[in-house]
Amino acid sequence: MKTFFKILGGLVLLVLLAAGGFAAFVAIDGVPRYAAKPPDLKVEVTPERVARGRLISNMLCSECHMDVKTGRLTGHRLPDLPAEFGPAYSKNLTQDRTVGIGSWTDGEIAFMLRTGIRRDGQYAPPWMPKLPRMKDEDILSIIAFLRSDDSLVQADATADRESEPTFLVKFLTHVAFKPFDYPSAPIQAPDTADKIAYGRYLALDAFDCFACHSGDFKKMNDRVPEKSFRFFGGGNSMPDLTGRPINTANLTPDPETGIGKWTEEQFVKAVREGVRPDGRLLRYPMARLPEFTEGEAEAIFAYLKTVPPIRNEVARNFDPMGGPALTDGKALFAKYGCVVCHANKGVGIGDVTKAKVDFPADSSLQAWIRNPSAFKPLTKMPSFQGVIREEEYAPLIAYVRDLAK
Ligand code: HEC
Ligand code: HEC
Ligand code: HEC
Description:
Radius of gyration: 23 Å
Strand order of the largest sheet: 1-2
CATH topology of the largest domain: Cytochrome Bc1 Complex, Chain D, domain 2
Distance between the termini: 79 Å
CATH architecture of the largest domain: Orthogonal Bundle
Helix content: 25-40%
CATH class of the largest domain: Mainly Alpha
Number of strands: 2
Structural class: mainly alpha
Number of helices: 15
Bound molecules: heme C
Number of domains: 3
């Protein structure tokens, strides 16, 4: 018996030593590096590709890489990253040849977008999405856009800041999140006539809806999305710009806790305009996605109907609707969620102080808040028509003017 315990004790000690050794190795090694093997690629920049690439960038890249201070894709600190992952900074994607990606080859950009391996071999942690299954033509369009004369990507020397991954990120990139292989065969999207297959492609391969909408980023399966923990069952918590946790919605067809009772029309409106069937606006980080055509949003709906239903009541912490009209501008800025996108000082993913120049008259500023997409069709700011009470506009606008002072 004694010997048995001795052996057992020895084994436990060995395991502990090995685990400790691995932890020390992970801490020192940091996020792993790999060999960058960019393909030989020269993208032909056509107006069609630039337009398509701009649209994709508006859906997939701008929110993280757009810097409201420079008005270009010069990068910034990701505001809504859970603290357990550490501060991360997106990078300068402009054509500047030193800090931007102006000197990267088309092949190096494609390799990074597909695999997650930067041209210096550094693996980009999960906070930079990878696009291993997006169709080739869309990848080429993104690159064409990055090379175009669009003002968002004109050379700007704003310096990059290096991310500071926590031990958890270093650990996860050693054991769970690995680079993807560069595709060995051409990738095309399924035929749009096959709604379910096309919707699956959009929701899993091109736009990563499943990543946020499954249960937990740490337990998502980026190779076989369907094997992600609580696939599309929601409840993945992420802080908004005020630090308040917002849980992702359950998008499975469960009739009670998911979207089983939603009509196709309601779903399309929620996705393209950011308005729920009960009239509530969807909150950041769920973006309105007017870039999708109705047909595309319908395809995603058709696909989601085929996902196994999961009964998961997600705590949504919505503010109560209605109530008396408010007269305090600051309270209105909070009540209508302006603060979620614009932060306390008015500068978040959009800069309200710009209204000073763009909308000097209160009537024109009111028109913007009512329906921003009448001015900028693809803006991420939702329409507040019918949401904000008429008598609330004056104090709200006065407060926005104060923020610009
Ligand atoms: C969720 C936020 C997020 C989104 C969305 C995003 N990125 Fe990034 N991106 C990052 C972060 C953070 C880094 C820095 C990675 C690191 O810390 O190593 C990065 C790095 C990069 C790099 C490497 C640049 C360099 O100098 O090393 C490229 C290229 C890039 N992103 C392109 C894109 C493109 C194109 C899109 C849209 C298809 C996109 N990103 C979408 C956050 C994001
Ligand atoms: C960055 C993370 C993120 C991504 C990516 C994302 N969502 Fe969301 N989504 C959310 C969050 C958070 C909510 C909840 C918002 C709220 O409660 O106001 C939400 C809510 C929704 C809702 C409303 C459901 C309800 O019950 O209120 C729909 C519909 C939706 N998302 C569809 C999609 C689709 C389709 C995609 C892919 C094109 C997608 N989402 C991608 C985070 C995300
Ligand atoms: C979902 C995010 C979101 C919410 C919520 C939001 N905004 Fe915005 N807002 C933006 C973005 C993004 C821009 C930048 C415009 C653009 O380029 O699309 C913006 C721009 C603005 C501007 C500057 C317009 C200009 O170009 O001069 C004002 C003013 C403004 N918002 C006010 C508000 C007010 C008031 C509220 C609340 C009633 C609000 N916003 C809610 C995202 C949001």
